[in-house]
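Following up on my earlier thread - several people asked me to post the actual chain instead of describing it. Fair enough. Here it is, all 136 residues.
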Amino acid sequence: MSTIPSKQQRSAPLHWGYPLAVLTAVLTVGGTYLWLTDGPAPEQHTADSLRITISPTPIRQLPAPPIPEAFANYKFHSVIVAEEHGMQVVKLRLAEQGDEIVVDAATGKLIETRPYRPMNVAPPLGKLAAPFSPMM
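Reply from S.P.:
Thanks for posting it. Predicted structure:
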């Protein structure tokens, strides 16, 4: 006759969940304590120690740039000096229904070109959009 060996159960001194629960509780209590306690008391300042002298920085305004001699023979429809996004720009349009060229006034670099869009026509909304009716 053969005997069936009995299963020996290992008795662990601590289950792995207990240290995890203790660590979680310690971190929660410690974090709450640090969050709720005030730091060191702020230093008391007198009115004289808080006075700061600030010199106003002058804002540099660029004059309207003259039209270069190379373009003197051309008839511009419009030359507009404006400010966009905190930068002075020059907007050039050669024809009334032509594209607009936007140039940085300080450096002369091209920023962008904008296509001509009539003011009385709504922008296209898409292939399946309903027709535009200004009377609605």
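The beta strands are 78-84, 87-93, 100-104, 110-114. That should answer part of your original question.
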